[in-house]
Write a structure and sequence with these properties.
The protein is an all-alpha fold. Helix content is 78%, strand content 0%.
Length: 222
């Protein structure tokens, strides 16, 4: 049963997943090209001073990419199930709605985390070619809340799509947007390191929140 569900979910998200990876790699290539250009024009010392003194983030083009990826994956994975009452049909499978929805969410989160790991690995490889380890470490730690924003976006949008009531869908969408935005407002390196544990709480809560609209949907709520 779970293998069949995996195959079904993969068919829905495979193209957006691959597009997300390609977009990520493209942005990393852009960062590498931009760094090479600025180093040739300004030299290493001026670039390092811009980062250490003025907190310029040479990787700012990655800021909203996880949110975009989380949004796209949630839409492609869950919106098709909202047509022709497919969710209700799925609820008649020999697996209860809680396990079904959590399994779908785990697969989606797994896809996002895979891209996040590719992003971090590629970013470290690119940055290490231009900066010392201290700057590289501070840089990818600064991006951790951005990756968390992607998880929040995915979970919030998935919950909103499953929710059968349109008014609640809009409310959930707005809550998701403003919550995810909190993770991307940092302007200083490692600004949110001391609250990362706190920032993980909404992600843990949202992981199981989808159960409630799923239960309402199965009961025929509108």
């Amino acid at each position: 049963m779970y293998r069949s569900l995996f195959d079904k979910e993969w068919l829905k998200v495979r193209w957006v997943f691959l597009a997300y990876i390609i977009l990520t790699i493209s942005v990393l290539v852009y960062i590498a090209s931009d760094l090479r250009h600025t180093f040739e024009m300004k030299g290493a010392i001026k670039n390092w001073l811009a980062i250490t003194i003025h907190h310029e983030m040479y990787f700012s083009s990655l800021r909203y990419l996880p949110m975009l990826g989380g949004f796209a994956l949630a839409i492609f994975q869950f919106v098709p199930e909202s047509f022709d009452n497919r969710f209700r049909l799925s609820f008649h499978l020999p697996i209860n709605e809680i396990k079904l929805l959590l399994y779908m969410v785990i697969l989606g989160l797994g896809a996002i985390i895979i891209v996040d790991l590719i992003t971090i690995g590629g970013f470290i490889a690119v940055s290490s070619s231009f900066f010392p380890a201290e700057i590289v470490s501070a840089s990818y730690q600064t991006m951790i809340p951005w990756f968390m924003a992607g998880l929040v976006t995915y979970l919030g949008i998935a919950t909103a799509v499953v929710e059968p009531n349109w008014y609640l869908r809009i409310v959930l969408g707005l809550i998701t947007y403003f919550t995810a935005s909190l993770y991307t407002q940092g302007t200083i390196y490692m600004q949110y390191n001391h609250v990362l544990a706190t920032y993980a709480i909404p992600i843990l809560l949202l992981t199981i929140t989808i159960i409630f609209p799923g239960h309402r949907l199965r009961k025929g709520a509108k």
